[in-house]
Structures are given as C-alpha cells and as structure tokens.
Amino acid sequence: MKKINIVCLGGSMEQQSSTLAVLKYAALKLKELGADVYISDIRTLKLPVFSYKALRSMKNRKFTELVKKIQGADGFIFASPEYHGSVSSAFKNVIDYLEVLSDEKPPYLSLKPVGCIALGGAENAGYATLNSMVSIVHNLRGIAAPSSLAIGYGSSLFDAKGKLKSELIIKRVNRLAEELFLLAKRLRD
C-alpha cells in the first residue's frame, strides 16, 4: 500500500520560530503514524511579494519543489504565527503563490484535508488567525481538519532544549496529526 504523503507548510521569518517548531513536532507524529512528510519552512523559500507578473517570471527551485510535493500530497498541515489578528504576511505570500495550482485538474488543494495551527503571543491569541486559515483552506478548495488549533503563549511552549513541554498542547497536536492522517487515508482510498 502506498504511504500517505503529507506536506507541512509554515513557520515565520524568525530564526528560532516557535511556529516552525510546533509544525516539526506535528510532522514527527505523522511520521510515527507511517506518513511520508515534507516540511517547507516559509523562511527558506525567499519568495518576492506576490504579483501575477512575479508568478509568471519566477524561477525558484525551492518553491518548484514545494509545488511538486503539494501536487502529490494526500494532506497538509499549515502553521502560521498570529500577527495583528491574522496570518503573517510571509505565510500569506506563500499561499498567494499557490495560484500556480489553479489550472490543475482538480485545482488547488481540492478535497484534500488540511490541519491548521495558529500560534499567538497571548493567552487567548490565535483564534482570529485560525479562522483566517480555515477560510484560506476553503478558498483553496481544501477540507479544514476539525481538530485544527489555536495556541496562545507560543514563545513559552518549549524548554531550554527546544522541546515542546506543554502536555495539553502535545495532546492537541497529536490529535490533529492523527485526525489528519486518518482523513488523508480515507479521502485518498
């Protein structure tokens, strides 16, 4: 049986991104479940600000690799920090470049499950961003996973060694990974 392929996309422009660290934790859980996982750190893509002219003329090896992985994926996890009540501009910029998938048959992320993770700095932060992410997933014709989550106090989730320390967050991210894996498997089969 062919393995489930999951693409994880996210992070921030920060060198030590809490968002990317949570995304990598989710990717490890997906690997434990038996998925092949590809992680794309938005910081390394180095995309110019989106425009259709830039899209038509762009030659970016890392982005081309990401697009190929997306085309073969069974599911996705998107992760963004919350900046002023929404996704980061860097995350949104990558999403805008997914316009290259508009002519696919079916287009964009049609009928593929997407788990969303939003990280904010305050206790109740992340919910506005999570809502934005779910809307983005729907606009890309994907299926937002019900266990998608908003996480507050994003920068204090890790111990000195960079390991996720909150049992509650570990439980919630594990649930999202398990749900996404099962959705991807059922929707593919």
CATH architecture: 3-Layer(aba) Sandwich
- Separation of the first and last Cα atoms: 10 Å
- Work out the number of β strands: 7
Q: Whole-number average pLDDT?
A: 94
Total tally of structural domains:
1
Write down the Rg: 16 Å
If you had to describe this structure to a student in words, what would you say it looks like?
The chain is an alpha/beta fold. The chain has one domain: Rossmann fold, CATH 3.40.50.360. The protein is 42% helix and 19% strand. It is built from seven helices and seven strands; from the N terminus they run E-H-E-H-H-H-E-E-H-E-H-E-E-H. It has helices spanning 18-32, 42-45, 52-57, 61-71, 89-97, 127-139, 167-188, and strands spanning 5-10, 36-41, 75-83, 86-87, 113-119, 143-144, 149-151. Strands 1, 2, 3, 4, 5, 6 and 7 form a seven-stranded mixed beta sheet that branches. Helix 1 (18-32) links the parallel strand 1 and strand 2. Helix 1 (18-32) packs across helix 7 (167-188). The radius of gyration is 16 Å and the shape is globular. The model has no long low-confidence stretch (mean pLDDT 94).
